[in-house]
Amino acid sequence: MSTLGSVVSAGFDVERLREDFPVLKQQIHGKPLVYLDNAATAQKPLPVLEAIRRFYEVECANIHRGVHELSQRSTAAYEETRAAARRFLNARSKNELIFVRGTTEGINLVASTWGRKNIKAGDEIIISALEHHSNIVPWQMLVEEKEARLRVIPMNDRGELLLEEYEKSLNPRTRLVAFAHVSNALGTINPARQMIEMAHRAGALTLIDGAQAAPHMPIDVQALDADFYTFSGHKVFGPTGVGILYGKAKLLEAMPPYQGGGDMIRTVSFEKTTYNDVPYKFEAGTPNISSGIGLGAALDYVTHIGLDKIAAYEHELLSYATETLTEIPGLRLIGTAREKASVLSFVMEGIHPHDIGTVLDRQGIAVRTGHHCAQPIMDWFHIPATTRASLAFYNTAGEIDALVAGLYKVKEVFGE
Ligand SMILES: *Cc1c(COP(=O)(O)O)cnc(C)c1O
Predict the structure, then answer these.
(1) CATH number 3.90.1150.10 is the correct assignment for the domain at 2-32+307-413
(2) 49-304: which CATH architecture?
């Protein structure tokens, strides 16, 4: 507890930050809400809610089309998010950022444009044993279509990738290495910079699934030298239905368009259509404008707090939670990587995760139970499911204590 105190005194005032999240101030089943399902989606602060409201109240118009005032305003607000995303990821240019629906669409966009064009029979794509289904299935679909091959970097009992095995799997046929910066199911932080360097040495490109990194740590795509990097707005305290795909400019320029329709074209005739410039070439149709604007507010919000401060505070909170949870008899943490972020996946002897989740819910505590869209990870640990408590910067040591008390209650109800 004293370590948490020192983080607070270093300028991280969690109680004040919680004031920005109206949703947290409620009772669930008569108990204060303890929201520990942040890896599934994070709550939204007032500036995000206000940005969405302002759009519908005073800016609402379609973007990139109108000469009239409202269209100018909505276009400016929407494009401001692209600028915020550039700052957030430290990309070189605003044109390297593409609006997508979320991480899932970011990955699918690369698979179906860059992938369709560049992957040939016999080529290889490497993913890891830690991946979310959305960084597995698009590549499986692609290799099936192209008669290419998918290889998987294995992991150890802690949930850490085996880099020597990764090194062995790289070869002249490797075209792409796609992996999560942070695992949603285990919390493992992968050594992204090193893994990217290894891929580049083998002549392969890289795609980083940043869905779980964006809310928890500073990201610098130039320092990483990532070729593609994608994240979801809703996990970084923004709205659902919007996310960002970063790609190096020269790669994006050489890629064919994604979907066809309005906004992605320059000229259309029945004989020939020419395409718009990057990034608009990849953005067909009217996008989720209000969510896009809300995302900009979310990125500015976390940047203002400081992702380094968020990372330091959450690190303390995770250590405290790890310590107190492992004291519970019969509880086993799944995922104990030395480099880890904000996720506590666990099983309890003789008690089904679904029952744990249900009893916790009666205490006002929201956790996730299941395979967390990562069935291969569950198979590897020979378990069908885990209970997962996932933290955000607005969680407190007191909430960890509530979780622990809730788990003793679970033992009381289901214990022998
Ligand atoms: C949530 C998540 C995804 C999928 O994100 P969507 O917002 O559902 O598209 C992909 N990868 C990881 C690691 C995730 O946590």
Answers:
(1) yes
(2) 3-Layer(aba) Sandwich (3.40)
Residue 180 CA, closest ligand 1 atom number: 13
From residue 283, give the alpha-carbon distance in Å to each of 106, 171, 197, 278.
12, 34, 30, 9
Model confidence pLDDT, tens digit, residues 169-226: 999 999 999 999 999 999 999 999 999 999 999 999 999 999 999 999 999 999 999 9
- The SS3 call for residue 331 is strand
| DSSP states along 344-407 | EEEEETTB-HHHHHHHHHHTTEE-EEE-TT-HHHHHHTT-S-EEEEE--TT--HHHHHHHHHHH
Listed in sequence order, the residues at least 6 apart from 415 whose beta carbon sits closer than 8 Å to its beta carbon are: none
Check if 180 has its Cβ closer than 6 Å to any atom of ligand 1: yes
Contacts by 4-8, CB closer than 8 A, 24 or more apart: 4/316, 4/317, 4/320, 4/397, 7/312, 7/313, 7/316
Q: How far is the CA of 355 from the centre of ligand 1 (A)?
A: 25
Domain locations along the chain: 2-32+307-413, 49-304
Element (H, E) at 56: none
Catalytic: 373?
Answer: yes
| 243 secondary structure, DSSP code | E
Same fold, 2-32+307-413 and 49-304: no
Query: Is there an atom of ligand 1 within 6 Å of 188 CB?
Result: no
How many residues are recorded in the chain? 416
pLDDT digits (tens, 9 = 90+) for 35-67: 999 999 999 999 999 999 999 999 999 998 789
Distance CA 231, CA 253 (A): 21
Distance CA 93, CA 221 (A): 12
Give the closest residue to 127 by CA, choosing from 173, 175, 177: 177
